[in-house]
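Minimal example, chain plus fe (ii) ion.
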Amino acid sequence: MAKENIDWTKVTQAVRTDVRLRATPNPVARAVDIAHVRFSRQDVMKQGRFLADFGLREVPGSDGWQAFGGTGGYGPCYLLQQGEDAFMGLGLAVSSRADLEKLAAQRNASGIEPALCWPGGEQVRLTDPAGNSVYAVHGPFVEAASPRPPLNQNLDNVLQRLNDMQRPPEQAATVLRLGHGVLGVVDFFRCVRWYMDHFGLVPSDIQTIGEGDPALVFMRCNRGDMPVDHHTVVIAQNVLNLFSHAAFECIDLDDIAMGQEWLMSRGWKHAWGVGRHLLGSQIFDYWRDPVGDKLEHFVDSDKFTADKPADVSPLSTGGLYQWGPPVPADFEKPRMTPSLLWKAIRNIRASEEMTFTRVKDLMRAVATPPRPWH
Ligand SMILES: [Fe+2]
């Protein structure tokens, strides 16, 4: 059925009441934010140089890991070790030590142990249904502090800068904190359910394929009346289990744009930007690290309390952004080698929920040109 012939009021109602995506009333624990992402790299020297140019500062590591941080957060937000190029998991900060105890009692969870590279922090290791290591962490929190206020702008008749110039510093962007992580998964509903059940995440936006079949969900933390980012973890239907990107909050648009100048001057590979997302509303700029994984700078996220119900919309490439350059063809699609293709087919056959019809609907949704003029 053509997208324009779908009754969106009906679809929205059906998706909002879909038991597979309904928020868990009593989750095992409550996440308060994302804490970190972990990677291994064959060339850790080169990775470290990229991270410094991206705006992350190296802090003391431990147990063979290097640690990089922003100006605040739940310990260092990027952990790096020597090894095959791979995503090694993500950390979610939970609201109390009691939450760690409850998570440690779950099947296949580790006991409570000292958190990696975070003095005073503790962690419990779990594994999500896609096989990703997920670390529940708890410990000392540092409020993100910006080294400068956002730039003053002369807009309309609001004069904020008289007899003075606009000169943002020529330097790497300032990473304040890690804001969200995005994962592609084969068993979409199982994964979403797992994050909701274990960490109390709630949907902010759900995107559908076909005739209203959910295939992507932006989830945020449930902190009651306290405003939180529009999304902390995003789960997207894929034919492979993979890391899509991690996003780091910066000071303002000029911080991101000067950060782009800085990364370009150092010869790193740009991925996409600068633009403004539609869902979450962030201004974004994406970069490829030395092995091709994407890291994002962002500012100006929507902030929601627990009261905001989920919105529902059709998944499309054009729906990724309000303004910005066209989405590059390789932005979300992995380069399909014969071995990856075989892996994808095996994944679809082995999955209880992924079907070839769903793959076709997914491909159709993302194949539409992002704008009529492209
Ligand atoms: Fe993002």
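The CA atoms of residues 175 and 260 lie 13 Å apart. The pocket of fe (ii) ion is lined by residues 180, 182, 245, 247, 296 (CB under 6 Å).
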